[in-house]
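INFO  loader      accepted 1 record
INFO  loader      residues=296
INFO  predictor   begin
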Amino acid sequence: MRPTLLSRRSFLALSAALPWAFTARAASSIPVGLELYSVRDELKRDPESTVRAVASMGYTVVEFYAPYYEWTDAEAKQMRQLLDDLGLHCNSTHNDASYLGPEKLPRARDLNLILGSKYVVQASSLPQTSLDGWKSVADSLNAAAEKLAPANLKVGYHNHQVEFQLVEGKRPMEVLAKETMPNVMLQLDVGTCLEAGSDPVEWIRQNPGRIHSIHCKDWSPDPARGYSVLFAEGSADWKNIFAAAESVGGIEYYLIEQEGSRFPELETARLCLQSYHRLRASAVREPRKFAGEQAR
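INFO  predictor   done
INFO  writer      dumping tokens
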């Protein structure tokens, strides 16, 4: 049987459509969660009701932050049961640097295992004045990764602005990426990357296979707005960020994060998720139109 030959018009149409067919599948298959720092006051006031409210909005993943470390085993098990009942997953936790140190790491390990986490993420670091200081941070991450490996837990590192600000002519995040083991996740905070003057898309492409989760936090250069903008109201190029994350970054899940807005915390979380779904849907529709134009 002779192979079917594509016409040039058909080939161009197919070539234009294929990357966006991937995006369409990714948009529906990659979970979107909430970094619970976004609803920190509500979570402190009533953890169970807050988690229930987050689930009812349509989030499927949550990320607990540092105060979880103070839970008893019983409290952690109660939260895990609630997550299971609601169909939520805790893929990762955010941790103070000390939680990954030798004294506190065993407790962090035990709590993360109860919660069903995969990644124990260090939430940034104290600023280091030299590249050697940042290499020491990388060494501590590697040491924690080796200790957690027998429990099938992995280490992650979350950037703030400081990791993208030059030290001795180099960005500390470049040092951390180079000096940590490949299985250490580089959890990208988009907003702080932007504020520091770096390009999130470029960073993802420079570190293929290591951006397993992203904090979808927007930012505006307008000082009056800053981090108070909702998702997709700031300067982040989300469509290309998602495209890079899904083509080379190794993304496993997204996390909406909000530091505070003009709306109450839970309403902010709901509005951000709605904006996320609208943007994802438009990213799928618009390229189909483009593909049709290429075929003509």
